Amino acid sequence: MISSKISRRYAKALFGIGLEDGNYKAYGECLKEFARFCEENEAFFKTVSSKIFSTEERARVLNAVLAKSDFPDVVKNFLRVLVDKDRMVAVGAISEYYTKLTDEVSNITRANIITARPLRDEALDKLRQGLEKLTGKTVEAEVTQDDSLIGGVVVKIGDMVLDGSVRAQLQGLKESLKRGEYS
Amino acid sequence: MSRKRGLFRILRQVLVVSGTVALVWIPSGFLWAAEHGAEGAAHQGGGEFKDLISRFINFALMVIILFIVIRKSSMKDFFSSRREEIKRKLEELRKGKSEAEAKVKELEQKLNKFEQEKKKILEEFKAEGLAEKERIIKEAKERADQILQQAEFTIQREMEAARTRLREEVAELATKKAEEIIKNQITDKDQEHLVKEFIERVERLH
Question: Do A12 and A94 lie in a common domain?
């Protein structure tokens, strides 16, 4: 298991190169795509990240895949370094941290909006605008549905959680009743 | 051994007295026979004088014999030793009496002392008993108070716990029921209204 500190170090290294040549967004997208590819192709990921195979064997497999991709050379070389240094197993964490770095530079924040019922576009726009005003950043929202909320929405931005669900209100009501606040 | 010696002494004394009586009696008999013989021969005529002389001699002989016998015999010693013995016995008895009296006095003193000690011990025990009784009563009262307080505290705690449990159960049931009702009755309009309220709250957070 590779520590998050090492993952951040690798992400920062690639991000630094991207900032210098101005292609940090493209590198981020490529890295994200490769991480998703690893997630979807478990056998490939195990091959390139497992120490059962020699570095040369793993590099050969990686090169075979990269040959079919249109990734910039910087990204390809970065992935080869990960294989050489036995850090391929952390490619997911590196990609996540790289995204954070990109978002910071681009003044973007990602919001996870969980809703009990599908949101109308108008409501979603209004909510995004409200969140952008709140955070002072461009909000990229990812909407998911969770019936257990009963009604309302829950927004997660970084460590901040804004819970406007019926479930939370019922929970609050229950706690108040238990404390005897309504007796 | 001393008993044997005593018997022998008494026997000897009896023999001495018997001998003495015999010695006195026999000469008197002889004199009496001589008198009556002379009476027959001379009849009266100076007979009264002779009778007097013979009686006097008779008496004198008896006294002399008795004197000699008593002197020679151990009668004196007997009485003397008897007196000494009685005296000694009396002395011993007196001594024994005084010792017994001293003993009695000593025992009486001891008895008095014992009585006093007994009285003192009884008083002490009584005082200790009273103190112990008071202590036990005090402790029992304190313990009873503690138990009562504890019981009261326990009752209050149990009542509070029961109230809390009841409140929790009621809260649980009420929210469950409310959840069921809301789930069944919530509409898209309600959802829109909730989202709108949420957006307003988010905007108020700026």
Answer: yes
Does A49 reside within a domain? yes
Mean pLDDT of chain A: 91
Distance of CA B63 to the CA centre of its chain: 66
Let me know if residue A183 belongs to a domain. no
Tokens 């023999």 identify what position? B15
Contact A174 B174 (CB under 8 A): yes
Kind and range of the H or E run holding A108 = strand A108-115
What CATH number is attached to the domain comprising A77? Answer: 1.10.520.20
Say if the Cβ atoms of A134 and B202 lie within 8 Å.
yes
A171 lies within 8 A of chain B by CB: yes
What would the pLDDT profile of B4-52 be if each residue is shown by its tens digit?
Answer: 666 666 676 667 666 666 665 665 555 555 555 555 544 555 678 888 8
Predicted local distance difference test score (pLDDT) of residue B67: 83
Q: What is the spatial order of strands in the sheet that A160-165 belongs to?
A: A138-145, A108-115, A152-157, A160-165
* Three-class DSSP labels, B35-90: HHHHHHHHCCCCHHHHHHHHHHHHHHHHHHHHHHHHHHCCHHHHHHHHHHHHHHHH
Which ranges of chain A have pLDDT less than 50? none
Tell me the CA distances in angstroms from A156 to A24, A124, A181, B90, B153, one per residue in order.
Answer: 26, 14, 29, 133, 47
Instruction: Give the tens place of pLDDT for each residue, B151-180.
Output: 999 999 999 999 889 888 989 999 999 999
Whole-angstrom CA distances from A57 to A39, A52, B108 are 20, 10, 125
- Within-domain flag for A60: yes
Q: Which two tokens stand for residue A126?
A: 């209004």
ipTM exceeding the 0.85 mark: no
Tell me the H-state helices in chain B.
Answer: 2-42, 47-72, 75-185, 188-204
Domain count, chain A: 2
pTM comes to 0.53
Asked whether residue A128 falls in the same domain as residue A73, the answer is: no
Name the residue facing A151 among B167, B174, B186 (closest C-beta): B186
Rg (CA), chain B: 66
Q: Where are the domains positioned within chain B? A: 2-122, 177-204
- Within this chain, do residues A19 and A95 fall inside the same structural domain, yes or no? yes
Q: Which of B33, B91, B28 is closest to B60 using CA atoms?
A: B28
Residues of B with Cβ-Cβ distance to A174 under 8 angstroms: 171-172, 174-175
